[in-house]
Write a structure and sequence with these properties.
Blueprint lengths: L5 H21 L5 H8 L3 H7 L3 H24 L4 H17 L2 H9 L3 H6 L2 H14 L9 H17 L5 H13 L3
Helix pairs in contact: 1-2, 1-4, 2-3, 4-5, 4-6, 4-8, 5-8, 5-10, 6-9, 9-10
């Protein structure tokens, strides 16, 4: 694939920035027209870069998992694996709580491939392994538990929009993962 021209690259970035905002507020119900209007480009320009709404949402999901994978890389450097894990979950949850589109995407579509490709799965497994070895995390905890926790958090956010109930949910889930 050849590199985009400078104007096309700028348009793509404007589309992604606009889409982040629109999908964050409207979720999967967002319309391409709204993205185009916010990006100040024509609908055809959006479709040239992203042939479907799902393709655009996929690009946003990949970006978010990349952000979370970077947080996980930072967490890996911390000595106390449980505290690093706990902080990673909270920081991820805070990002996700502000993004209804991401919550919808992880709730309704299997994102395991993206999690693997982003490097997040390997980093999370390593961090959880260290937390278990340090005796701070339940021995039976798995990365699937974390995926379910985040999908559940998205359901809490969709069910009770605008409230910070998700914070209690995450605190309870983390308590459940802590070694007794």
């Amino acid at each position: 694939m050849r590199p985009l021209r400078a104007d096309a690259r700028r348009n793509r970035e404007r589309i992604l920035k606009a889409a982040r905002h629109v999908f964050a507020h409207q979720g999967a119900d967002a319309q391409i027209d709204d993205v185009a209007r916010r990006a100040k480009v024509g609908v055809g320009t959006v479709y040239r870069h992203f042939p479907t709404k799902d393709a655009l949402l996929d690009a946003l999901v990949r970006e978010r998992f990349g952000e979370i994978a970077a947080l996980a890389a930072d967490a890996a450097a911390r000595e106390d694996a449980w505290e690093a894990f706990r902080e990673l979950v909270w920081r991820s949850a805070e990002l996700n709580a502000r993004d209804r589109g991401f919550c919808d995407a992880i709730a309704f579509q299997d994102q395991s491939g993206v999690v693997l490709e982003s490097g997040l799965l390997a980093r999370l497994e390593a961090l959880m392994g260290r937390a278990k070895a340090q005796g701070a995390m339940r021995a039976d905890a798995t990365t699937d538990d974390i995926a379910m926790m985040m999908v559940g958090m998205g359901s809490v956010i969709r069910s009770i929009p605008g409230a910070d109930v998700w914070r209690r949910y995450i605190a309870l889930m983390l308590d459940g993962l802590r070694a007794s």
